[in-house]
C-alpha cells in the first residue's frame, strides 16, 4: 500500500458493536460515544435489551445516531445482513467491536459431555470470526479501520475447567493475529482483548453461581490485587484500540485482569 492508512477521528467514525446491548459491549458503546463517535449500530439477539441499550446511549448523548439490529451472530447469512445494513445506515464502517458470549460455565473435562464441544466452540469463537471476515473487505476498500475482538485469558492461561473454552479463546486470539498481518497492507488493524473475571456482567453472575466454576473464579478473584476488572475497564482499552491513538498498534492480545495473571 503506497498511501497512508485511513485513520478517522472518533467524530468521523462509524462503529459496529456486536454484543453491544449489555456488559462490555454496552460499556464500549457508551465509551465510544463519550469519545465522540456519533454513528453506531448495536447488535444483539434480544430486541428489548437492544432498544434499552440504544436508549441508554442516547440518554447520555442525544445527538448520537444509534441503531439496533437483532441477529444471531453465529449465522453467516445473518452476519452478512447485519454488516450490509450497518454499512448502509452509517455510511462507513471504521470500527468493529466483537463482544459476544454464551452462557458457558467452566467444568472439568471429564465432566463435560463431548456433545457440548461443538456448541461451546461455535458459540464462543465463530461470531468474531464471521464479523471480522464480513467487515474486512469494506475496511480494506476504504483504506483503514479497526477491529477489536474480545476473547479471554483462557486463551493464554491453562485453567482447569476451561479446556474447550480455552481452545475457543485461543482460536479467537490467533485468528485476530493472522488477520492483523494480512490486513495491515490495507491499513486495517485487528487486536484482541483478553479479560478474566469481569464484575457486574451476566457472564460473571453465571460462573459465580455455584459448583466448581464458582470455586475457580472466587480463587482467581483473590489474585486480582489491583481489583477485579469491570466492564468500564475493558471499554476504556477498547475505545483506545478503536481510535487514532492506536493507529500503529495491531496484532496484539492485551489482558485486563487486575493482576490475576501476567502473560
UniProtKB/TrEMBL annotation:
It catalyses: a (3R)-hydroxyacyl-[ACP] + NADP(+) = a 3-oxoacyl-[ACP] + NADPH + H(+). It holds the Pfam family adh_short_C2. It is found in: Secreted, Cell wall. Its main location: secreted. Keywords: Cell wall, Secreted. SUPFAM superfamilies: NAD(P)-binding Rossmann-fold domains. One of its GO terms (molecular function) is 3-oxoacyl-[acyl-carrier-protein] reductase (NADPH) activity. Gene3D superfamilies: NAD(P)-binding Rossmann-like Domain. Belongs to the short-chain dehydrogenases/reductases (SDR) family. This is 3-oxoacyl-[acyl-carrier-protein] reductase MabA. It comes from Gordonia desulfuricans.
